Every structure is written in C-alpha cells, then in structure tokens.
Amino acid sequence: MDITERPDRAARKSMIEAYQRLKSHNANHPLLKYISKTTDNDFLYSLDNKIMEEFVEKFVSGNSNIADIHSRYCSALRAVFLESDRADRREI
C-alpha cells in the first residue's frame, strides 16, 4: 500500500483485500453479509436495510469518518480470518 494514498482509499483497499481473503476461506461467514459485491478496487454495500443497520451498530461510532469505518470492518474481517487460519493449522 502506498503511504501517499488518501486514508479512505487505503482503508477501502485493505478492507476489500481482507473481505476477499475471508470469503475465499469461508464464503458463508456472517461478516461477509454487509458487502454484496467486490472487485479489486471497489465494493457495494448490502442493499438490505436491516443488514446495514446492523453494520452501522457494529462499525460506526461517534463522528466516524469512512476510513475509520472501513478500518474497523477490515480489522474484524482479519481477526476472523486469522483465527480460522490458526484453527485450520492446528487440525493439520
């Protein structure tokens, strides 16, 4: 990641990478429901209002900017992926 990127772009890119990594590992994980589609550079949030209300409750706090929200979601995605990966390695 280029440190000269705008924070919201960098956070978005990291979030997309974390989303795609978790999806490739566990396509049915509940954290994936907040995004309906991704590409390497972009994504679409779920169109389901109830799901998005849940997303806001979990990842938006106070005066959050979009980079903060993407960073929190990315951290949650990464944590789940890492825990799943550790569990898989223990099984081997």
Written account of the structure:
The chain is mainly alpha-helical and 92 residues long. The chain has one domain (7-91). The chain has helices at 7-25, 49-59, 66-91; strands at residues 35-38, 43-45. Strand 1 (35-38) and strand 2 (43-45) form a beta hairpin. The radius of gyration is 14 Å and the shape is globular. The N and C termini lie far apart (32 Å).
What is the string of SSEs from the N terminus onward? HEEHH
Strand count: 2
Quick one: biggest sheet? Answer: 2 strands, antiparallel
Total number of domains: 1
Average pLDDT over all residues: 87
Q: Are there runs of 5+ residues with pLDDT below 50, and where?
A: none
Based on secondary structure, the structural category is: mainly alpha
| Share in helix | 55-70%
Widest sheet, order of strands: 1-2
Number of helices: 3
Coarse morphology: globular
Question: Radius of gyration over alpha carbons?
Answer: 14 Å
Share in β-strands: 5-15%
The end-to-end span amounts to 32 Å
